[in-house]
Design brief:
The protein is built from 13 helices and 14 strands. It is an alpha/beta fold. Helix 4 runs parallel beside helix 5 and helix 11 packs parallel to helix 13.
Amino acid sequence: MAAELISFARGAPSADILPVEAVRGAAQRALADDWKRALSYGTGIGHPGLCEWVAERHGIVDPAQVMITNGSLEAGSMLFQHLIAPGDRVIVEQPSYDRTLLLLERLGAERVGVPLDEDGIDVQALERALVGGPVRLVHVIPNFHNPAGCTLSVAKRERLVELAAEHGFWIFEDDPYRELPFEGEPPPTMLALDGAGRVIHSSSFSKTVSPGVRVGYLAGPEQEITKLAERANEVYISPNMLAESIVWELCRSGALEANIAFVKGALRERRDALVDALQEHLSEAEFVVPGGGYFLWLTLNDDVDCEDLLAAALEERVAFISGRDFMLDGGRSSLRLSFASVPAEQIGEGVERIATALERLRTASPA
């Protein structure tokens, strides 16, 4: 009988840390107290109560600067369609979220890659890219980056906001992992630092509640949020009001905070298990230890092609995502591991299987 597959591939929590009882209770309360709104059409902004909660969470005075969406990926897709025309130059981090790269490619954007440092995007390289022509938008994942695991420093956040005001580009602050730091609090959002109205912030309850709720949001200048809400209303009338009512109940009851605390503890245990296993079984791997979130990005020696390694790893019943999927160019010897999807007690075995696959691959390759 084949061994069970251990998959570090998917950026989603394993079922054992999903808050089924909390969601069940919230659903019951939502259908008792908010049933008319939960079961009816809304408008393009989504659930007004949840908009107010998000606004308060971010220190935003006017909830009209917030709209709820069917997950943050849809939020990003709508924003790109709203702001980006074919040929527009868009700066993307390297590596970056694979679906962002795909969405921008489909819109005909000119994607300009800028490398990441241990403390986030290389701002000097970004400034050099600005010399090459007007930039319409800069996409940044500031906290516990997917896939790189790094967090953008305060100084770089401040400089990006300054550059956006100076050059007139938009910053899309794509921030679904913000609520999942393992120690302390993350730096302030660029939305909070923005005095020129050039930042649109996105986040999601997929990481703090569950992926299945499909509830995210956008926050930014009221004029742009109004236009985006009108677009949403034209496309789907309103986002999922039932899911939003449930999430709102979780938020206002305190159940969300309790679940965030639980999830952070579970994810930190998994992160620690992964780091220990890599140090034991894949000592050549270079990586930034993520301070939160779901992902660790590692680079192996130059002789390794991680697409070949993945094929060998699957034969050992372990999966990951190869680095090329997150790059415009390069990534041959890199890969992404999601520790959210694997219980801590399975992580050591999973990494050992990757090491076995690597050894077998090297043994089979000519010198």
